[in-house]
Amino acid sequence: MSRGRGLSEADLALWAAFVETIRPLRGRAPPLLRETPPVMPSPGPPAPAAPARIIPEPLPRRPPPLSLLAIGVAPPGLDGATWERLRSGRLKPARVFDLHGLTLAEAHRVLLDAVAAARAERWRCIEIITGRGSGAEGGAIRRELPHWLNLPTLRPLVLAAAHPHPANPGATRLLLRKSASPSRRAV
Predict the structure, then answer these.
(1) Which residues contact 64 (CB under 8 A, 6 or more apart)?
(2) d(C-alpha 163, C-alpha 174), whole Å
(3) CATH T-level fold of 80-176
(4) Average pLDDT over residues 58-84
(5) Of residues 60 and 161, more confidently modeled
(6) Strands, E, within the chain: which ranges?
(7) Domain map (residue ranges) of the chain
(8) What pLDDT band is residue 55 in, cutting at 50, 70 and 90?
(9) d(Cα 88, Cα 81) in Å, to the nearest integer?
(10) What pLDDT band is residue 91 in, cutting at 50, 70 and 90?
(11) Are 178 and 87 in contact (CB under 8 A)?
């Protein structure tokens, strides 16, 4: 069954280029290049141009959302030995930041500055002293610390948080995520 039209010159050129790249099986002749005269289309009204197809650009990939950070709960992705060292207080902090006697606004600013300084100095662990506070709930700073750690400005920087000693909930050690080394950073 014939298609009723021959190959175009572009099709013939493409086939000739392909034939030159193949090697026939042993004992076989290379395929012949058949030339058929192109069939001239009958003049008629021009076909309407197809609308240009718009291909949308792929959306940038977002990293998966981070889970909420809870003080004293092992985060996903942290190995058991490191978590145990942080939780038991054997992972020593590079620096201790005391928030006693500060207002909530001042304490929040000091916390942000402390994490920024730790990142700049490439410290892996810092300790935040909030104090025990009065009552079963503790002080205002101690109650706000978990909320502050889950804010979009701090959550990507903090990997885990734990009280270094179960009898002292007024101190919290933060394990910070490793920052990219200068040689790895894109310039």
Answers:
(1) none
(2) 9
(3) Ribosomal Protein S8; Chain: A, domain 1 (3.30.1370)
(4) 85
(5) 161
(6) 95-98, 125-129, 158-162, 171-176
(7) 7-37, 80-176
(8) confident
(9) 11
(10) very high
(11) no
Query: What six digits make up the tokens of 132?
Result: 């025990």
The torsion angles phi and psi of 113, rounded to 5 degrees, stand at: -65, -35
User: Whose CA is closest to 120, among 72, 182, 39?
Assistant: 182
State yes or no: pLDDT of 136 exceeds 80: no
Long-range pairs, 107-116, Cβ under 8 A, ≥24: 107/141, 107/144, 108/144, 108/148, 111/145, 111/148, 111/154, 112/153, 112/154, 115/154, 115/157, 115/158, 115/174, 115/176
Instruction: Report the b/e string of 89-99 with b at 16+ CB within 10 A.
Output: bebebeeebeb
Model pTM score: 0.61
In terms of residues, how long is the chain?
A: 187
Does the pLDDT at position 112 exceed 80?
yes
What average pLDDT does the segment 27-52 reach?
65
- Mean pLDDT, residues 93-111 taken together: 93
Residues 6+ positions from 102 with CB-CB distance below 8 Å: 110, 141
Closest CA to 152 of 93, 68, 57: 68
- Determine the residue type at 41: P
